[in-house]
């Protein structure tokens, strides 16, 4: 296991996954890829008459990127003194798509991520990022449940 991917969203359970990744990386001489994903707003909208118009979300997206960068920095700040090599990156798009794409592009051989507890009804209608990653990842995925933190 040479590269471990750890998606971070600022939740306590994602912090637990990050902590666990440091221990695992030490044991296996691995490097860690910490990422966070900004889910940006749609740019185009359509009126009831089907006429397209554009809403400028640039400012909102920039604010979201800054906020996610701050969250990622806060989550991994304590690891700078560790002997584990790591990189960080802020990605933009649908979280599950970006996690899977990045894992493949970077040839990650392991993903560790937290899972917050959605109710069964919310999970049915919305799906969960974790479930989509588990179902589509080309490498093993370790899930840290909210109850494990």
Automatic annotation (TrEMBL):
Similarity comment text for this entry: Belongs to the universal stress protein A family.
Domain (UspA): residue spans on this chain: 1-144
Secretion signal span: none
Protein name: Nucleotide-binding universal stress UspA family protein
Source organism (scientific name): Sedimentibacter saalensis
Cited InterPro entries: Rossmann-like_a/b/a_fold, Universal_stress_UspA, UspA
